[in-house]
Amino acid sequence: MKKVSVCAAMILGLAALARASTASADDTIVTKAPPKPAAPPAPAACAGVVEFFTTSCPLSWSGITVYGTVDTGVAWQSHGVRFNPSYGPGLEQLISSNSNRAIWNPAPNGLSQSFIGIKGKEQFAPGWSFIFDLQAGFDPYSLQLANGPKSQLANNGIPAALQSSNGDSSRAGQFYNGVGYAGVSSPTYGTLTVGRQNSLTLDGVIAYDPQAASYAFSLIGYSGTTAGVGDTEDARFSTAAKYRVDIGQFRAAALYQFGGYQANNASTDAYQLQAGVDIPAGAYGKFSFDAIYSRVDDAVASLVLSAAQNTLFPGTLAARISDDSSVMLLGKYTYGPVQVYGGYERIAFAAPSNPQTTFVDIGGFTVVSANISNSFFDGRVLDVSWTGAKYSVNQDIDLVGAYYHLSQNTFATGANTGCHTTVSAQCAGTEDAFSFSVDWKFAKKFDAYAGLMYSRVTNGLASGFLFRNTVDPTAGLRFRF
Fold it and tell me: Using CA atoms, how far apart are residues 481 and 55, in angstroms rounded to an integer?
């Protein structure tokens, strides 16, 4: 939504806010654990432009750091659609309803979302620090802020075969579309933050997905359904309190969203609870496990308008509303250069607690009553599972392979009750994705990557699709500072 000049002004503004010395990059607090050896001193802040690009030096002053990622690439798709400059991933890396032809596309953000951010950590009392973090995700080709709902709006009323890439997202053009929070942390009592934050389920996906929530190589990274407890808009909450604490090898977390749609949330309220543990196995490595329970009320899934809807209500979007709950189970085993991952989430959908009428969504677009469904997802159950492994050939090269599976029950009524066909999106169906990637860290702040993802859908999850599978080889270059 923002053009080059706006993004440039934002970057310069963030840099101008920064003042002298280095901030810690790690806001995770270990609580009541045995004393640890003193951490090595943080690297000195960058002293010049050449050093900024050729060393690992941070852009830090007085406990404040300006940081970010620029991820660019290119992809070929056996069934795809045109690049969209406002859509966070830029293109539809998974098979989608409008995927229709072989095409080369720019592929921004293949491994990770490009963003510019500013964060800080400053001790204000013995054992207590003030922390904050603000991130704005953008497209490195267009320099527009990532905006899923805007990409949908641009395709209102357009036949599927003529559409550009689009999809719903929690990134909806906000200047804080990543995170935007502040809080306090203590090595004894944990970390409490308030503001726009990742859901605990998004944090879980990032930590336990072998492809680290990559858009180009991960079903659960690209889709956002798993991270958002059924709806990708809820992968982040704009007004939430989040608490994390580690006690030895155990950890716990809780999140509560206390604002509704009017506070730029995609639900009226939500809460999440998490418990986890690390189990050392001595010479045989380490096991890590986490479990997360989530409840999200009146969750929003935005939709493109049909031609008929667009004629009546141009400049608006459609939506489906539901109450969602889930249980997510996560595991990882680390042994030397090998990491093996696995995860499972069951998501149950029900009719919303508060059936919705006309409202304004997180992108600032109106959703009118005539285009809202408060019952479409009632009775839906999604089971999502994944596994994979990462092998570090050396400190610079990682090889990653992963498999993802999603299955949907049949929740159709009437003539389609019990269906396992494409006659309705409410019929039972499956989605699968296989991926492989290579990541080469050839310099302190640069890495190059290449890989592919194959995805396919069946039955209800293929309803309305022009094609049912795609293979998307992608290669890119990433700069992280």
Answer: 10
